[in-house]
Design brief:
Layout: E1 20-32, E2 36-42, E3 47-53, H1 59-64, E4 70-79, E5 94-105, H2 122-127, H3 129-132, H4 136-158, E6 162-163, E7 181-183, E8 191-193, H5 199-207, E9 212-221, E10 232-242, H6 246-264, E11 268-269, E12 276-278, H7 279-286, E13 299-301, H8 314-321, E14 325-331, H9 339-351, E15 358-363, E16 369-371, H10 380-390, E17 397-403, H11 405-422, E18 430-431, E19 433-437, E20 442-444, E21 451-453, H12 467-471, E22 480-485, E23 488-495, H13 500-509, H14 514-520, H15 522-528, E24 535-538, H16 542-549, H17 580-585
Parallel strand pairs: 3-5, 6-9, 11-18, 12-19
Antiparallel strand pairs: 1-2, 1-4, 2-3, 4-5, 7-8, 9-10, 10-24, 13-14, 14-17, 15-16, 15-17, 19-22, 20-21, 22-23, 23-24
Helix pairs in contact: 5-15, 14-15
């Protein structure tokens, strides 16, 4: 018999009445009723209410013990009276009369309460993460994470995938995010890089003749933190498949995600067959390649309206003549909204750095007109054309912005979210997945004005490419795709370029000659020269999947030991300085700060 406990703190029920038992756990709460002391004992599994009366010789000692002390109690199971039954816990129909107890682990004064899910400063929570993880909500999130990963592993096995582990110490890649570098002691002056993803290795696995690979892979990127991205490291479900096209990857991922989200959430899935939206359409209709499809609002381009002579809104007309675009968002049946609703959205736009959002409302069933600050600048005919473009009706409103395309996409995307939230249009009880497809192979760098890869340099371009296509690289689309849920990007993926000559050609467009490609991607380019199958894959983020399932807004709430916004581990005090002997061993000298 285990000397610490006969049962866990979620197990005892009415059937156990009269049993002599022992439990071990943390003191979650104490309630002193004078002659009777109530102690809620908590372990990983649940909570059990224990009682001790003043006549017991241990009463005074237990009364003084600090919360979160680890104790073992011995006692007898009794039933609760009807009025004291607690249906919120598994053991709510019984309680334990304490005979004896002993302290297994003492506790100092707590820097934060454990029995409350009250928000505390990030610094306190991360410094004392081992205490933070005892709190009910985050404790359950971490258990959920474990269950989700186990379920995914099982599902991948059912789908015929094999799990392999790829190296953690590898070579630095010239593309993508900033690497974490590790100095080599045995090779002075040279460095390993921690993998940003197992991208090249998983492709090499396909070249090695394995057909379906997956891995719950740790990835390392020296990036700034965001609500949906941990600084430093994260985990992804890395997947690669041979002899597949884009649709084959979609079929596997949709089946996996549908099963996972049905298993771990009561929310409904809008579609079990995820809609496909081209990158160009996503940017045009939603202003973002991460659209939240729970939001019904659509962005429309009405630039041509401002070329009409019967539209006299001169500010926009002048901007359009100089090359700007005009895009708008229609809101249904908002004619009865107060002026403050519209003005507040315009004010919000100015606060985030835009010039504002112009607006009007369609009115007049028989004699169409526009109500609002700019309504007088539009003729009946121009309003009818706007109604046709936006599928509007009398009583609907139009918010519009004018500017260069990239700025316009940014403001209209944010405005779409802002307006939908103000109008309570978002259904929080659903998951809306979609695929974003047909990404451009290349894009122009805003700073250098040079051509660069827009997504993944190892992706297969679409179509039968000719020399004329390479002369206009911005017109080339790739078999690259993202999967998005509720406005959160879960993953990027692609059908891979397995043809060395084509890879040399694509890299030459961004400035790499053949020798540079051979040096930077020697393992990959060499392997592809020895009979590589067509292959493709994807890598959904584990952290983001669990964040959605746990209904959390910040990825820190589903990560066991996260870093802070400055990529520091406050609990373990990392990163830390190293001593001179270690530096000498690595042939490294530190440059003194001025």
């Amino acid at each position: 018999m285990n000397k610490y406990r006969t049962h866990n703190c979620n197990e005892l029920k009415l059937k156990d009445i009269g049993k002599e038992i022992s439990l071990s756990g943390w003191i979650n709460k104490k309630r002193d009723h004078g002659n009777l002391l109530f102690v809620d004992l908590r372990d990983n599994y649940g909570v059990t209410q224990c009682i001790i009366d003043k006549e017991n010789q241990n009463f005074l000692k237990l009364e003084k013990i600090q919360l979160e002390t680890v104790i073992k109690i011995q006692g007898k199971v009794i039933n609760r009276s009807n009025e004291t039954i607690n249906k919120d816990i598994d053991t709510g129909e019984i309680e334990i009369v304490i005979n004896n107890f002993e302290v297994l682990g003492s506790c100092k004064e707590l820097p934060m309460p454990i029995f409350s899910d009250q928000e505390y400063a990030e610094e306190i929570r991360l410094k004392y993460r081992f205490l933070d993880l005892r709190r009910k909500k985050i404790h359950e999130n971490i258990i959920l994470r474990s269950k989700v990963i186990s379920f995914i592993r099982n599902e991948m096995g059912k789908l015929g995938f094999l799990e392999f582990q790829t190296p953690i110490l590898t070579s630095s890649s010239p593309e993508g995010a900033r690497d974490f570098l590790v100095p080599s002691r045995l090779n002075p002056g040279k460095f390993y890089a921690l993998p940003q993803a197992p991208q090249q290795f998983k492709q090499l696995i396909m070249v090695s003749g394995f057909d379906k690979y997956f891995q719950i892979a740790p990835c390392f990127r020296d990036e700034d933190a965001r609500a949906d991205r941990s600084p430093g490291e994260f985990y992804q479900l890395d997947i690669e498949m041979s002899f597949v096209e884009q649709e084959d990857v979609f079929e596997v991922v949709e089946k996996l995600l549908v099963n996972t989200f049905k298993k771990f959430s009561n929310k409904k899935l809008v579609n079990e067959k995820f809609p496909k939206i081209s990158y160009a359409d996503a940017m045009s209709m939603y202003g973002s390649d991460k659209p939240d499809l729970r939001n019904p609002l659509i962005i429309n381009d009405i630039t041509k309206i401002f070329e009409r002579e019967d539209v006299t809104f001169e500010i926009f007309k002048k901007l359009v003549k100089s090359g700007s675009k005009v895009r708008c968002i229609k809101t249904r049946k908002t004619k009865d909204k107060p002026r403050s609703f519209f003005d507040n959205i315009d004010k919000w736009a100015k606060q985030i750095g835009a010039s504002g959002l112009a607006y009007f409302t369609f009115e007049g069933e028989k004699n169409l007109s526009a109500k609002g600050p700019i309504g007088k600048f539009f003729s009946k005919e121009s309003l009818q054309e706007i109604m046709k473009i936006t599928n509007s009706h009398v009583g609907d409103s139009i918010f519009m912005a004018c500017g260069k395309q990239q700025d316009l996409e940014t403001i209209t995307s944010q405005a779409r979210d802002k307006i939908a939230n103000d109008l309570n249009l978002i259904d929080e009880n659903v998951f809306a997945f979609c695929w974003i497809v047909d990404y451009p192979m290349f894009e122009k760098d805003d700073i250098t004005n040079k051509i660069k890869f827009s997504h993944n340099p190892f992706s297969m371009p679409q179509g039968n490419l000719t020399e004329s296509d390479f002369e206009n690289p911005l017109s080339i689309s790739a078999f690259q795709y993202d999967i998005v849920c509720n406005g959160i990007e879960l993953s990027s993926g692609a059908i891979r370029n397995h043809k060395p000559e084509l890879m040399y050609k694509l890299f030459s467009i961004v400035g790499y000659d053949k020798d540079q490609v051979d040096v930077k991607f020697s393992g990959m380019i060499n392997a592809l020269s020895y009979g590589a199958p067509p292959h493709g894959g994807i890598a959904p983020g584990i952290d983001r999947i669990v964040m959605l399932l746990a209904n959390e807004k910040n990825i820190r709430e589903v990560t066991m030991f996260p870093m802070n916004q400055n990529a520091q581990d406050l609990m373990m005090k990392a990163p830390s300085e190293i001593n001179e002997d270690q530096l000498k061993e690595l042939n490294i000298a530190l440059k003194q700060k001025k």
